[in-house]
Amino acid sequence: MKNSKIVLVFGGIILLGLILFVLNLVVGSVMAPLDDTLKVLFKVDTDNTLNVIIFNYRLPQALTALLAGAALAVAGLLMQTLFRNPLADPSMLGISSGASLGVGLVILLTGAISGAAISSFGWWSTIGVSLAAFIGAVAVLFVMLAFSARMKNMTTLIIIGLMIAYLAGSITDILKFFSLKEDIHAFVIWGMGSFSGVGTSKMTVFATSIIIGLIATFFLSKNLNILLLGDMYAENLGLNIKRNSVIIILVSGYLTAIVTAYCGPIAFVGLAMPHIARFLFKSSDHHLLIPATMLIGIDMTLLCNLIARMPGLDGNLPINAVTAFIGAPVVISVIMKSKKQ
Amino acid sequence: MQYASYINVTKYNSGYYINITNPWNDNSLGEYYLYPDTLQLPEELAGKTVVRTPVKTSVTYSSTQWSVFLELGEMDRVKGILETEYTDNPEVKRLLAEGKVQDVGNETNLKTEIVINMHPDIILYTPYSTVPKTEIGQLTGAVMFPFADYLENHPLGRAEWLKVIGYLTCREQYTDEWFNGIVSRYNSMKSIYENIENRPTVFSDLPFEGQWYLPGGNSYIAQIFHDAGADYIWKDNTSTASLPVDAETVLSKARDADFWRVMNSTGHNITYASLAAENELFTYFKAYQNRNILVCDIRQSGYFEKSEYEPDILLKDMVFAFHPEMMSNEDYCPKYFYRLKDEK
């Protein structure tokens, strides 16, 4: 692909992202005339309710969608390269289930042990939930890595991933059985996915955590490219395969876990976005793929967030339903294309 | 019945005939003949669903049922109750500890074998669909009696279900007087406030992940708001169920509402600071800024067990919040809903 064409495609993706971002701010269940909206967009006036809605409700939601999209998409790319499997993604390999189990342990057990619902612990509940999601996600990732060292067959690995997901899911179900209604309710709602949980109050922590993870991925480009050549070549080129894998796992697990903790387990973004990136840029160079995947992920989640909050709906659709609705056809078309080749 | 829409009771010989209307399709959810166990059963009742009264062994699904037995001093007729982890009632806790009442699980995971072993003659259950519950009744031989109290949309209609327990325990005289007292206290307060000119506006509840579930305009709580002399922001809505509403819609419609009713089920105290930490958006509501949030601590106040039979007190709590100037000579201490004080 020519450089000029690459710039053109990048420009297109960024432009689309900007349009979607503005639409996210302007469109919602409360519809105001466009000129009113434009007026409040450029000054902060907390007496104006539309202003509060745009800056304190829609803006944090759009930012959350944007950061989550970039994080999940790039985490999916890292896993697909590491496992050399086009179907690897947080939900496919059991990582989301691991994170969910971690979150389930915290949300469901606090009630059972202390008699009070998790939401009553305020700040600590957020930290606890994030940490639990991270531990759950990384634990599953390491288990998967151990298996991948033994099994060269990727189908087997995916099956093991699914089994681990079932296992984690059943432990979560058992926990639910012993939990308080309020906690189960909170857990079920969390599981549907939402970009509105972060809000202005937790935005700093969320954004900082995600941006650190995103920056880290840029340093992995070269090693990811080498990995694509195969273990033998990689070792010959002086790459410490084991250490490299651990780093990739930690970064992708970290990103998945943060997003999962704050927004719930969001499916399909991690799986589908890298495919679109490869398809658009016809490249396997991670220097290109990493930023491309992030930007496409951003477009995707902004679009999903827009659809979920469409005017005329009485509330928000669960994000997971929307991402799957858009993501599933993408995955099917990729599979059909690769079969043809 | 005066207020309840789903109970129909007529005198039948020396007993009663009760028909429970199916709340979803106006058919019948069950027909029951209550007949004193000291009398010979009339022959024409062969093949009908008969409950011999007073009932000796019952299982109750909801705390709104056993709380009436408790009030009547007839708790020895209740052998099994559900969801005991949600009650803080000391008397019930004592009975559970002594083994006189047993925990029989919850709605989705009933401890079936324990229930069978109790040989209950009646099981009072909470109906959730048009189809009557029969499986557990067939296993135990108990009469399955649907308690559709929670579907009544008038506060007095809900309270009127206590009479059913009166018929089942042959204490109808007591329950009639009890109910009449509730009605007269409720209506005399309502008559002062329902058409009052100065009506503060009110909205309700907290969102889950950006989504509010508001009481419908024809719901139980909307009726109490109206009777207490307030304007519920969603009063024109015709639904009896809860409405899912996006946070931005709630903010745009209810930002200037005078009062905000909040149900606290967390088991911890809510404060203005904890609300702001939970969601910064809350701080833009006028009710938040003016410290006019009405909180009900569900666990501490025993809301689910008792408030159904104290709609007059619910009403008084609301009136006390909405129209304090009218009650200024009274040193009233609210039981369920109190105005959340500033922590400073």
Characterize the structure shown.
- The complex is a heterodimer of chains A (341) and B (344).
- Chain A is mostly helical.
- Chain A has 14 helices and no strands.
- Chain A is globular and about 65 Å long.
- In chain B, strands 7-6-5-10-11 form a 5-stranded parallel β-sheet, with helices on one face.
- Chain B contains 14 helices and 18 strands.
- Chain B starts with 6 loop residues before the first strand and ends in a 5-residue tail after the last strand.
- Chains A and B meet through α3 and α7 of A and β15, α9 and α10 of B.
Strand content of chain B: 15-25%
The separation of the N and C termini of chain A measures 20 Å
Q: What is the averaged pLDDT score of chain B?
A: 92
Our count of helices of chain B gives 14
Low-confidence stretches of chain A: none
Biggest β-sheet strands, sense, barrel of chain A: none
Number of strands of chain B: 18
- Helical fraction of chain A: over 70%
- How much strand of chain A? under 5%
Most extensive interface: pair and counts? A-B, 40 and 30 residues
Assembly of the depicted chains: heterodimer
Radius of gyration of CA atoms of chain B, rounded to a whole number:
22 Å
How many DSSP helices of chain A? 14
The average pLDDT score of chain A comes to 83
Distance between the termini of chain B: 49 Å
Reported for the largest beta sheet of chain B, the result is:
5 strands, parallel
